[in-house]
Amino acid sequence: MILDPTSVLASMATTNFAAAASVYAPPHTATLEPVAPSERIQALDLLRGWAMFGVLWSNLNDWYAVTDETSRFDRILSFTQEWLVESRFYTLLCFLFGIGFGIQLMRATERGTNVQRTYLRRSAALLGFGLIHGLLIWHGDILTAYALVAFALLLFRDATPRRQLAWAVGIALFSAEVISRLRWLAGQRYMVAREPATTANWIYGHGTYAQIAAQRVHQFGDWWGRWGLVTYFAVLAMFLAGVWAIRSGFARRVFSEPRTTRRFFAACVVVALIGYAVEVFGRGFFFPRQTAEPTTMTVMLSWRRFLFHALDWSVEAGGLAYAALLLLAFQTRRGARLLAPLAATGRMALTTYLTQSVVCTTLFYSYGFRWMNRVGYTGMFTITVALFAAQMAMSVWWLKRYRFGPVEWLWRTLTYGRAPAMRVLAEPALP
Fold first, then answer.
1. Beta-carbon neighbour count of residue 66 at 10 Å?
2. Each residue of 72-85: pLDDT tens digit?
3. Does 234 fall in a domain?
4. What is the C-alpha end-to-end distance of the chain, expressed in Å?
5. Phi, psi torsion values for 324, nearest 5 degrees
């Protein structure tokens, strides 16, 4: 029997939350299968839904030529974007992706099957979605990066949770420093100049469809050339941290034990505040003004930037603090009931993400409503709330009738080589 997500989440609040947040032991089968609704960790769906809200809000401010502040509320929203929203929700998604991979590993172990072939198909399908999204719909795609990093996770599948955490910390601390030094030695010392953002925004807002398509492909490739390598390892570190969290049991405790959740929230707030203090008060020390052309020796021996990144975890800690705060609300009866639509949206996270891109490009690009460079921070927030509210309502309606979102169903079909049942079976009448 498949239940309405609202009734499922409401019932969780009246029963043992720890049991509801855990992964139910699946039946032993010879092959891996899509996760049934009864096996899902509802807290993960909740956090994915929350991340989708933050991603939409941040993307609108970052990529659609928001206008300058004209009111006090605009200034408040601008400050919020820069210090409280920027990159926090993408980081949370990375962490949740790692948790999902860890769950797949554990399910495969329980069944005595090898996850590699299925997981490679899953990652390849996600890569296909990402390339279609980035090259044909919206150049700010993140699915391509997630898919490419997902392939590397297989290298760590047999490592113990402790080693996975050690790799996550090591990659997070040292990868960017190693890459910057290797680039310097290879002669890649300065960024190649590119056209101003105003040029690209004009093309999106006023150009022909052919011009927009060419600009989209250009910016997609340009981003990967500039930031792809550093971003790759940063995402890998968060993925590995997520794998460690679920395999070590820490994530389950945070999901199900309010005391652990409160402690985790407090720790994240402390780490975030330290990071903010470093950003606000320490930049003059960590990034002193260059008085002479840097030499190979000074670049190789530089340490202040490394120390800055070692101390500034405000983005990662901020995103996890939001998650912990939401979980505390979810661990109450009223909270579970009120947050049910958000969790339903999280079950359809891939469909939600792609739909946001289709709607937003239609609103802002020249082949749609031409809102590029015409909407301020208040307007962007209004669009965020309105669009996401519609997506939550649609997700609840859809999941009353279907087991998966449409893109999630396609993803599972490509992953497992067969189409899973889509319709929700009607509950049999009581005798």
1. 22
2. 999 999 999 999 99
3. yes
4. 16
5. -65, -40
